[in-house]
Amino acid sequence: MYQEPIAPRGEPSVVVIGAGVAGSWQALLFARAGYRVTLLERDTAEMTQATSHWAGGMLAPWCEAEAAEPLITHLGNRALDLWRTYLPETPFNGSLVVAHARDRADFERFARMTTDHRRLDAQGIAELEPALEGQFREGLFFAGEGHVEPRRVLPLLHEHLRASGGIIRFETECDLEILAQQPDRIVIDCRGLGARDQHPELRGVKGEMVIVETAEVELARPVRLIHPRWPIYVIPREDNLFMIGATSIEAEDTGVSVRSALELLSAAYTVHPAFGEARIVEIGAGLRPAFPDNLPRIVVSKQKISINGLYRHGFLLAPALAEMTLAYAQRGFMHNEVMRSA
Question: Domains of the chain, with CATH numbers?
């Protein structure tokens, strides 16, 4: 059981619980601001049990506007600046949205519900993504969006934290209430669904994914396929890997159904036929923590701050939420749409 030693009087100290994307950004921004930070995680350094392990890693605030509240786009837009500032190597190659001709009505709806895109014809799609030449008649290009590979960027965030003077302790259990009672400490709870003891209204929303490998397709950016029943995204990763996902299922098991796997793979095949010969590397699912309104929430008290409910927007929103928490700790700033007192 971890108990942090008492710091010298007057020296700011922060303990962050949970080393997923939310907790890692909290720890990094506090460390960069001069706080003495310890990041605690009960999982191993590989973080295979974390929701972040199964995430897509898309930084797409304008695409998300199709189904999310305006708050998500607003916070996500700010978060893009923070990704660029703290991890300048983050790829911002944009997002491409496409649809087959029979689904043009859904494509037009997506275009109306979103902003900051430009329309492409078949030639424009081919110029942007040569692998998709001849596959689609029109598309939407969101030039300002980006993406990260979660399993690579999380260790990078941890590396930046250490370089900023922070400490990370993996395979470490802790008592939240005992930590919060220690003087001169701020405890930041980023446990996701593990925080149900504090937030019983949290629920898990399952997101299923498939990772495939093929050298026959090259993509420079995420591609979203609009479909009335099974819209998907295909996200390029290193080493000829592609992550295929998009399901949001109101269930709390982490199994992947045959139906979901078939629909994800069938949809990927319609994006490019070469995916039909791709090798399946991994199939899995993660549970995203969500409040009833699917919006993030920061709950603050004197020495404890809780960040939770990032739903399917964890990698997009985590930097902006960390900036809010830091502003609260430094000068009492409260964002009325996100923050509330315990």
Answer: 13-54+149-201+292-341 (3.50.50.60), 95-143+203-290 (3.30.9.10)
